[in-house]
# Entry
Amino acid sequence: MPNEITKVGPKYQVTIPKPVREALKLETGDLLEVRVAGRHVLLRPKVLVDRDPELERDLAEAEADIKAGRVYGPYGAQDALKGLDEAIKEERRRARMSGGGEVEKLKAKSRARRPAVTTRAHARTLHR
# Structure
């Protein structure tokens, strides 16, 4: 790699030349360790979390699937909300089937905290 020259900007920022970025495979947001060695500044790519080779392989497979078009979706907000509604209904159904009645207990507890409204005047005083 040839020597590259860059300049310190007004806010002491330094642009890493493209050949250096490509050689080190740096991307936006990557972390660099900065050290002073005599009159030299050393920049070294740094990873704060140990990389898991199995996770890296799975991520590479997932990216290949996306590029090949083997994906579900795209989904919009309405689809996400529909999925959440279905999950909530399923969870409530399971709670009823298990006999635990947790949902009903929570509803009863909520009702017990609310005072009974007997007249419109009473309702107005409660909501002030």
